[in-house]
Specification:
single chain; 567 residues; alpha/beta; GMP Synthetase, Chain A, domain 3; Rossmann fold; 3 domains; seven-stranded mixed sheet; 20 helices; 39% helix
């Protein structure tokens, strides 16, 4: 009986060849080690040495091949580079560039040709990221590949568990685009990292990651966003662009320290909002006509109010798109520039260089603009210069953080603006929120409970009465609201809307026009949010809640959604 350990002839030959190859490699490594000693350099064998992606890509692949060198270690500003020939001219140029760029402390190690070949193969594993300049390039094919794997939200978790750290950014971006998410929240907890997508303004749990791999993930996110890897105890803000086949996607990244490590939010800005038409905002009826009239004036100020994420910037851009003509000069001052607009001069503030909204506005006025867009009025200087511009022949549009249209004037006063300047300068105030649209595939008529229906009728009654008066003056039958025959809708959730019941968002608005009567009240300093609200509603202003309920009657959104957003 043959010995079980006895090898067949081909097997023995293979073992022998492998042994000889190993001995040959060892001999080559010894030669490299002696060469390093003779030249006064340290030696390292990199075969099998673990190198993180963020370390590897400090030297782009093409430059690594030219310099015959590879970056294998990074800690803060200290990096180590393995080189085949430390005297290589391309390597010296590379070191000079690295020091100029980030002032790195660089230590050179001599490596063998086998080490270099082995570690250069690592670049193949990070093919998702084509380049890092001011962003990353992800091919459309890569995104489509991930999108095909993700049918529903829970599939994101499956793919993330299977994927590598290298694939993480491409997978997250593909998933966010698939579900039209505006933000990706990466939140550290005691035992894991939660990944949540903000879809149509509402957060949805998408996946979780083991806490032990979080340092690698956050390092990758920070590297791409040009954030400092060694700063973990204070907030940082960064950005990068994704160069897709047909468009460039702007991405903002914010990190903050927490109890269990840094948490990050990745916000995606698609260029589609820059092309939004004024008519597509969701304004209707009297509000649409009033705002159209106010932005057509050659001077004055139009302010958009609302909390963060209420669509203020989109509204400002839609107004600019409507006003943008070859014979009109428009200049914007933004922090930051969210969308690029053709035919409009856009400037972004840099507080670190003392280029603020206030100082920027002074400079803009010397550029002889017809229309000025100020991203946000945050302080008295900005408010006063904006008001002065509106009083001296410019149309100024801007945003302000306030709860409603009636709260804008008290807010300006709280900043220190003078009533006798606000009154003649202000044309109109818009307040807005975003509500989710019902999914049309699974939308169905519902009956409201008695308490909710009663609340709805109270809100709609003033509109019903005003429309009855209008209908006496030959208004169409369609505009009437019969409070006893109200129809509302809800979507139960289907494949089309990922079971959520909503798909997309639309604005709900209130427009407060400052007329001569309101001006007199402001000048008499009879100003409070309550007083302004009373005046605006007395003049027939449709509130955001009422506008939302009218959209609910049209089957665009639900009553539940309107009350969720407006309170």
């Amino acid at each position: 009986m043959p010995n079980k350990l006895q090898l067949s002839s081909p097997e023995a030959e293979k073992v022998f060849k492998d042994k000889m190859a190993k001995m040959e490699l060892q001999e080559k490594e010894k030669v490299s080690q002696k060469k390093a000693e003779s030249l006064g350099f340290r030696y390292i064998n990199l075969k099998g040495f673990p190198i993180g992606d963020e370390t590897l890509i400090l030297i782009p692949e093409k430059k690594a091949q030219e310099a015959k060198a590879i970056c294998f270690f990074k800690s803060g500003q200290n990096i180590k580079i393995g080189a085949l020939n430390p005297e290589n001219k391309k390597l010296k140029e590379l070191i000079k560039d690295l020091k100029k760029k980030e002032d790195y402390n660089i230590e050179i190690y001599l490596i063998s040709e086998e080490s270099l070949k082995n570690r250069l193969k690592l670049y193949e594993k990070i093919f998702k990221i084509r380049k890092i300049v001011r962003g990353i390039e992800i091919s459309q094919e890569d995104l489509e590949k991930f999108k095909k794997k993700i049918k529903v939200l829970k599939d994101v978790n499956k793919e993330i568990q299977k994927g590598s750290i290298t694939d993480f950014i491409a997978l997250i971006i593909a998933s966010a685009l698939k579900f039209s998410a505006s933000d990706v929240h990466l939140e550290t907890e005691e035992n894991d990292v939660k990944i949540r997508f903000r879809i149509d303004g509402v957060l949805h749990q998408a996946a979780s990651l083991p806490i032990k791999i979080w340092p690698q993930i956050i390092s990758r996110v920070k590297l791409i966003s040009k954030l400092k890897l060694n700063i973990v105890n204070r907030p940082q803000d960064g950005r990068f662009s994704i160069f897709l086949t047909k468009e460039e996607l702007d991405v903002r990244v914010s990190t903050i320290p927490t109890n269990y490590g840094e948490s990050a939010v990745i916000r995606l800005f698609s260029g589609s909002a820059a092309n939004l038409s004024f008519d597509d905002l969701g304004l209707s009826g009297g509000a649409y006509e009033q705002l159209k009239e106010q932005i057509s004036k050659p001077n004055g100020m139009v302010i958009v109010t609302g909390p963060t994420g209420s669509g203020k910037t989109t509204t400002l851009y839609a107004i600019l798109n409507k006003l943008n003509k070859p014979d009109i000069k428009i200049i914007t001052l933004e922090d930051p520039i969210e969308y690029k607009l053709e035919g409009i001069i856009q400037s972004h503030i840099e507080s670190s260089k003392d280029y603020t909204f206030a100082s920027g506005l002074k400079s803009i006025l010397r550029q002889d603009p017809d229309i000025i867009m100020v991203g946000e009025i945050r302080d008295l200087d900005t408010a006063e210069i904006s008001i002065q511009a509106a009083l001296t022949g410019h149309l100024v549009i801007s945003s302000l953080h306030a709860n409603g249209a009636a709260a804008a004037i008290p807010r300006l006063l709280s900043l220190g603006a003078k009533p006798f300047l606000i009154a003649p300068a202000l044309n109109a105030v818009i307040a807005q929120r975003l509500v989710r649209r019902l999914c049309l595939k699974c939308r169905e008529e519902i009956k409201l409970d008695e308490e909710t229906l009663k609340k709805v009728k109270v809100l709609l009654k003033p509109i019903s009465l005003s429309r009855q008066d209008e209908n006496n003056n030959d208004k169409s039958e369609k505009e009437k609201i019969n409070l006893e025959e109200l129809k509302f809708y809800q979507s139960k959730g289907c494949k089309e809307c990922q079971g959520i019941g909503y798909k997309g968002r639309i604005g709900i608005f209130e427009v407060f026009v400052i007329d001569s009567e309101t001006e007199k009240i402001i000048l008499r300093s009879e100003i409070s949010e309550y007083k302004m609200k009373e005046i605006s509603e007395k003049k027939g202003m449709i509130t955001m809640a009422q506008d939302g309920l009218l959209k609910a009657l049209d089957g665009i959104t639900s009553v539940e959604e309107v009350f969720r957003v407006t309170g």
